[in-house]
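Example 3.2
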Amino acid sequence: METSEILKKVRKIEIKTRGLSQNIFAGQYHSAFKGRGMAFSEVREYQYGDDVRDIDWNVTARFHRPYVKVFEEERELTVMLLVDVSGSLDFGTTGQFKSDMVTEIAATLAFSAIQNNDKIGVIFFSDRIEKYIPPKKGRRHILYIIREMLDFHPQSKRTDIGMAIEFLTRVSRRRCTAFLLSDFYTRSDFQTQLQIASQKHDLAAIQVYDPRAKQLPDVGLLKVCDAETGHETYIDTSSKRLRQAHAQYWVHREEALHQLFAKSKVDWVSVATNEDYVRYLMLLFAQRGDS
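Structure, written as C-alpha cells:
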C-alpha cells in the first residue's frame, strides 16, 4: 500500500472513530473503566464503619491502635490492545475483511482512551509477538498505531493467543485495562494464561467473525483454503448435511468460548463483519459497568 493511500485511510478511520468515541462512548467508557484502579494514598486512624479488610496491620501494631489504608481512584489508566494479525483475519465476504473491522474497533477504543487522558499501547501477535508498541498518550501516537494496523505485514500466518496474553502479563507490571481482539481461531488452549492475566489486569475480549463462519451458502462445489496453513480443499455446499455440520460446529465453538471467558471472569462480545460494532461495544461497556 502506498504512503498516500495509507494516510487517506488513516484520516478516514480517524474521522469516523474519533466521532464515535466523542459522541457515543465518552460516558460509557468512563463509567465502565474508571474507578477500577485504586492507588494507595495514606493511612489514618480507624473510624466506625471502615472496612476491616483495609486495616494496615503493620501501622496498627506500631501505634497500638487500628489504622486503615486510604485509597484513591487512579485517574489515568493504561490501555493495552492485543491485536490478532494472523492469516485468518485476512478474510471477508461482506465487503470488508475481519482485519478491517478489528482496526476500526481498536481505533475507536484508542480515541476513547485518550479523551480520558489514558495511555494506550498495542501488542500485534500471530503465533509470535510481531510488534510491541509501548503505551503513550496523544493523538499522534494513536495515528501511528492506526497506520501500523493498516499496513502491517506479519512474519507468521498462524495464531497463538496464549503466548500473546502471557506477553501482556510480563510487560505490563501494573494493572491495566486490556482488550483482546481476535477471531479466536487458534490451535492451542489459552485458558491458563487467560485466568492468570484476568486476575492481574482488567481484561475484555472482542471476537470478530465473518457471517460465513456461522452459516454456509448453498453455492455448489466450493474451493476453500486455510489462511494459516495454506491447505486447500473442495467442499460441496449443496449438501444439507455438510451445511448443518458447519452450523453445528459454530454453535459448539461459540459455547466453548463462552464457557472459557465465563470461567476466567472475562467480559466478551462477538460481532460479525456485516453488523454494527458500535452496538456491541456499547453492550460490552454496559456489562463492565454492571460488574
